[in-house]
Design a protein that fits this description.
The protein has one domain: Metal-dependent hydrolases (TIM Barrel, Alpha-Beta Barrel), CATH 3.20.20.140. It contains 12 helices and 11 strands. The chain has an 8-stranded parallel beta sheet with strand order 2-3-4-5-6-7-8-9. Helix 2 links the parallel strand 3 and strand 4. The two termini are 18 Å apart. Bound molecules: (4S)-2,6-dioxohexahydropyrimidine-4-carboxylic acid (DOR) and zinc ion. The site of zinc ion has 5 residues, from loops. Zinc ion binds next to loops.
């Protein structure tokens, strides 16, 4: 039995660090575990221009304690009026690593998102030309589509046609939650990948709804049936280079989650690696963990692998009930691995 695992330093290819006091509070947790992270731009107002991206990157760097060697990778937030030249300029300047498509009103901070992909086709064509990845929150927002079906319907209505229309565009299907998403990504060309969160590996929708309503298990896309969790788990541990680590850590103060209309988002950054490795261990796939955590992401993005290593070993990690005003994923549980 493997009791200790040393891997190349990992990255988080999808995280919400927020701004202001919350950024000050949470930045350290991501920087403690990861060398780099793709930082989501759904601030209020969102990060849409290269100068806003640069200013946000400075605020993140200032919020990370000096002891950590951490690189934030900034993402542009696409709107109906995004400009291809601004995206290309931001990308060429090394400010924007990628751009994010939020369908308008799909989730937290998406009010300024895209109402129809046709409105940004010129921007996406330019991104395909320059090799700038498109990151997608893949859910439709139609009122007549059940929330548990919104990811699968998005594939049929938007994602599949987009991949056909722009076959060169690098696309990351973010935080996949369904067997349909797994199957789509597997059968798509090599320039289509996906991130997978810890929560979608650990919980199905029962965690949210059985024995009482549990707001800290609520995020978007919402956790689905068990058959979908099993499909996502199989993809994560498969060793396929198309699937990589992206926590979607999304902190919200406890009073905004424990409310009549609670916010979507799970704060998993503090123990993300301990959470992920538990899954690879349970699946007998510890040998696949380094690829998922440290290699598939940079290879997909065309970025260098990190130098240096981290070590995880068997041992108790007790997850506290709260971290400041935020309830972490696995609150009150003991995980079986610890970061050395
Ligand atoms: O649960 C979520 N929270 N999903 C998202 O897409 C956004 C995120 C947030 O920003 O809180
Ligand atoms: Zn997210």
């Amino acid at each position: 039995m493997t009791d200790r695992l040393t891997i190349r330093r990992p990255d988080d290819w999808h995280v919400h660090l927020r701004d202001g006091a919350m950024l000050e509070h949470v930045a350290r947790y991501t920087a403690r575990q990861f060398a780099r992270a793709i930082i989501m731009p759904n601030l209020s107002p969102p990060v849409t221009t290269a100068s806003e991206g640069e200013a946000y990157r400075d605020r993140i760097r200032a919020a990370v304690p000096a002891e950590y060697d951490f690189t934030p990778l900034i993402v542009a937030y696409l709107t109906d009026s995004s400009d291809a030249d601004e995206m290309a300029r931001g990308h060429a300047a090394g400010v924007f690593t990628a751009a994010k498509l939020y369908p308008a009103h799909a989730t937290t901070g998406s009010a300024h998102g895209v109402t129809d992909v046709a409105n940004i086709m010129g921007v996406l064509e330019r991104m395909a030309e320059i090799g700038m990845p498109l990151l997608i929150h893949g859910e439709v927002t139609d009122h007549d589509i059940d929330i548990f079906d919104r990811e699968a319907v998005f594939i049929d209505r938007t994602l599949a046609p987009l991949v056909t229309r722009l076959p060169e565009l690098k696309i990351v299907f973010e935080h996949i939650t369904t067997s349909e998403a797994v199957d789509f990504v597997k059968s798509a060309p090599a320039n289509v990948g996906a991130t997978i969160t810890p929560q979608h590996l650990h919980i199905n929708r029962n965690a949210m709804l059985v024995g009482g309503i549990r707001p800290h298990a609520y995020c978007l896309p919402v956790a689905k049936r068990e058959q979908h969790r099993l499909a996502v788990r199989a993809a994560a541990v498969s060793g396929s280079p198309k699937f990589f680590l992206g926590t979607d850590s999304a902190p919200h103060a406890v009073h905004t989650k424990e409310a009549a209309c609670g916010c979507a988002g799970i704060f998993n950054a503090p123990y993300a690696l301990e959470s992920y490795i538990a899954v690879f261990d349970e699946e007998g796939a510890l040998d696949k963990f380094e690829g998922f955590a440290s290699e598939h992401g940079p290879n997909f993005y065309g970025l260098p692998l990190n130098g240096g290593t981290i070590t995880l070993e068997r041992g108790a990690t007790v997850v506290p009930d709260t971290i400041g005003e935020v309830v972490p994923f696995h609150a009150g549980e003991t995980l079986g691995w610890k970061l050395v």
